[in-house]
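Anyone up for a design puzzle?
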């Protein structure tokens, strides 16, 4: 796999730190496919991340947001003693710890998370402030321009 060096980008730009960090993270991101997940667009401003977390309880999972990054982690706190008592003839369900990160776009808010049938669903919504929404500017004819200048 190729390695990309983004350090020249950090040295020659001002104010693009977040973008350079995002590109750097994407280039060096762990390519692990565990646990599998879906990203679903529910409507124009709603999304849902569904992650297969079979064998994990709500207490084993942690969902946190920091600096436009969603981090989902799973860790089993079962003691080693409980593991020693179990004898597997075949072990196909992975119960290893994981950490999965998602970069969130501007104005994306995490509405909540729920664990249902072995899937962790994280609901996301885009909430654009009124000041950032497109607005219409009225067009006037030449006569009303004089009224604007007199104000």
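Challenge accepted. My sequence:
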């Amino acid at each position: 796999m190729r390695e990309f060096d983004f350090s020249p980008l950090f040295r020659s730009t001002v104010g693009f730190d977040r973008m350079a960090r995002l590109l750097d993270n994407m280039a060096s991101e762990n390519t692990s496919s565990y646990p599998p997940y879906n990203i679903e667009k529910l409507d124009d401003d709603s999304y849902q991340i569904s992650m297969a977390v079979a064998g994990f309880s709500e207490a084993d999972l942690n969902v946190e947001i920091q600096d436009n990054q969603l981090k989902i982690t799973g860790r089993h706190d079962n003691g080693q003693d409980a593991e020693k008592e179990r004898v597997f003839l075949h072990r196909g369900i992975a119960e290893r710890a994981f950490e999965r990160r998602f970069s969130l776009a501007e104005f994306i808010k995490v509405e909540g998370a729920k664990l249902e049938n072995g899937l962790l669903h994280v609901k996301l919504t885009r909430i654009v402030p009124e000041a950032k929404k497109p607005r219409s500017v009225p067009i006037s004819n030449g006569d009303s321009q004089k009224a604007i200048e007199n104000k």
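A detail worth pointing out: The helical segments are 7-12, 17-27, 80-85, 142-150.
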